[in-house]
Amino acid sequence: MKRRALLQWMAAGTGLRSLSARDTAELGREVHRMARLDDRPGALDPQQTRTVAAAAETILPAGDGPGATEAGVAAFVDRMMADWYPPAERDAFLAGLLDLDARARTRAGRAFTDCGEADQIAVVTALDDELAALRARPGAASPDQHWFAILKYLTIWGYCTSAAGAQHLGLDAMPLRYDGNAPYQPRAGR
Is residue 176 assigned to a domain? Predict the structure, then answer.
């Protein structure tokens, strides 16, 4: 997928329909920056963060390039849930993480984060199949609001707008913006 098409797809995603592709990329980079610098508590507790990290790495694993973990996707998702998602959607997402763990316990007798790669892939694949079936069902109530659809979306967005992901994908970094009316700020010593 070309950069512009990817960013347009992302701009059309959950809750961001009014943003342009450029704005979506800028927002993603800003969320990564805030995730690194912001010391406010996020929406996820440590176990939920590990669950998101494991699920995101299952969706976008490291291979010939960095995976979701190296791209900082879990911190990105945490910051998005804390700052951008309304409480009802955040609560549904957190309930989905509990469902992910319950499915892993049913399949392998342990939490998702403690499962082996094959079990993690099987659980995520089953969720993805259920989401595809939901999307194919006529009149289905907004499948893009399903917690797993949101996780997939945020994983891809977080990966593509991270420094590691953008570099691997060859997405050129766009400047945040140009403001021709910004006041001139001479550097010190001039």
Answer: no
